[in-house]
TrEMBL record:
One Pfam family, short name: MoeA_N
Domain of life: Bacteria
Pathway annotation: Cofactor biosynthesis; molybdopterin biosynthesis
Record CDD domains: MoeA
Name of the protein in its database record: Molybdopterin molybdenumtransferase
Gene responsible for this protein: glp
The entry's keywords: Magnesium, Metal-binding, Molybdenum, Molybdenum cofactor biosynthesis, Transferase
């Protein structure tokens, strides 16, 4: 199954199972959440015309070029008096323009005479250095649509409009399970044939960045009865996310248990690293089974499960930005799967890690993102290739 098709199917499944619940949270708690309702400005921004400079406000229509006396000083945060005809007002950045003024000259272009009057040294124009009322936003305008992910910029924007609380989508509850008799948690000694569980940490911390509430189901032994029990005990979650144990190997008990108690589709993805990906349901709860090799887990989560989870929260823009960068490598052998090579940019070229084995997570730690090499393509040194930075995928 081509990667695009898998993504399309997953997004359609996500749209069919939206996280419908919403809650109201304080701005301080809204980081990483998804806006549940469009945000409509309740005020004009700025609410009144104000000065973009430290300088002098005057009314050009009444001015013949003469030096003007200063009739008031207006600081930011203070209400001005209407401008007295035949005068100017000392004004500071962000201070409201006095009624009647239509121009601000910056102080660098003004000369204060001995008698206190101000002479303007440069030609002046109406509206110069004036930020008009509503120039950024008008009351009633939609400033963010439902489905917007709230990061520092969006929260800053909500704050400029005075919103203290926002309606957001409930955090998706995601159960993470790692399968495999070989797995041991870091901190414990390794027995013969055992390896440390890396996927659990990778996914739990990644899911937290994506605003999910994680139900950490730990390590699931390769045993059918225990697998049944584990699934039955997961409780109320929106997604079961597992790694390993879902290909066609003899120890793939998760697949067996899902076939018994739910439904399961095994997708053979044209993706490398990756390939086997499971989508199914267990008692109505969607299950995504990612391949167990850590680099495969990384790539399939980033490119498929992440957009799925975002779309379930109503996020429209789930595709990561990608950039065309000259290849700093030769890829002479066309593949029949789309490869995501762990890569970093050096001297304006994208270089790939020497060992692209799906078991090597170190490749990704060295890298800054992945290069996409399409099926059948043979990019050469200097040719443009698509590069997706991890920063696009991890948040
Ligand atoms: P499986 O799909 O269960 O056959 O796993 C494929 C490969 O990924 C095997 O080499 C596993 O040992 C490895 N693997 C599976 N789960 C994890 C995990 N949580 N952490 C590290 N390696 C894993
Ligand atoms: Mg296994």
């Amino acid at each position: 199954m081509p990667v695009e098709e898998a993504l399309e199917r997953l997004l359609a499944l996500a749209e069919a199972a939206p996280i419908g619940d919403t809650e109201e949270v304080a701005l301080a708690d809204a980081e990483g959440r998804v806006l549940a309702r469009e945000l409509v400005a309740k005020l004009d921004l700025p609410p009144w015309p104000n000065s973009a400079m430290d300088g002098y406000a005057l009314r050009l229509a009444d001015w013949q070029g003469e030096a003007l006396p200063v009739s008031q000083r207006i600081f930011a945060g203070h209400a001005p008096q209407p401008l007295q005809p035949g005068t100017c007002a000392r004004i500071f950045t962000g201070a409201p323009l006095p009624q009647g003024a239509d121009c601000v000259e910056m102080q660098e272009n003004a000369e204060v005479l001995e008698d206190g009057r101000v002479r303007f040294l440069e030609p002046l124009a109406v509206d110069q250095n004036v930020r008009p009322k509503g120039q950024e936003t008008r009351a009633g305008e939609q400033v963010m649509s439902a489905g917007t992910r709230l990061g520092p910029i969006q929260l800053g924007l909500a704050a400029t409009l005075g919103f203290a609380r926002l309606d957001v989508v409930r955090r998706p509850r995601v159960a993470v399970l790692s399968t495999g008799d070989e797995l041991v948690e870091p901190g414990l000694p390794l027995g013969p044939g055992q390896i440390y569980n890396s996927n659990r940490r990778l996914l739990v911390s990644w899911l937290q960045r994506l605003g999910c509430e994680v139900v950490d189901a730990g390590i699931l032994a390769d045993d059918l009865e225990r697998t049944r029990q584990c699934l039955a005990g997961l409780g109320n979650v929106d997604l079961i996310l597992s790694t390993g144990g879902v290909s066609v190997g003899e120890a793939d008990y998760l697949g067996l248990a899902l076939r018994e108690a739910g439904e399961l589709a095994l997708w053979k993805l044209a993706i490398k690293p990756g390939k086997p990906l499971t989508f199914g349901h267990y008692q109505g709860v969607p299950v995504i089974g990612l391949p167990g090799n850590p680099a495969s887990t990384l790539v399939t989560f980033g490119l498929l499960a992440r957009p799925y989870l975002l779309r379930r929260q109503g996020v429209a823009a789930v595709a990561p930005l990608r950039f065309s960068v000259p290849a700093g490598f030769d890829w002479p052998k066309p593949g029949n799967r789309r490869e995501y090579l762990r890569a970093r940019i050096e001297d304006g070229q994208v270089r790939i890690y020497k060992n692209q084995s799906s078991g090597v997570l170190r490749s990704a730690a060295w890298a800054e993102g992945v290069v996409e090499v399409r099926e059948g393509s043979t990019p050469r040194q200097g040719e443009l290739v698509p590069f997706i930075p991890f920063s696009e995928l991890l948040g």
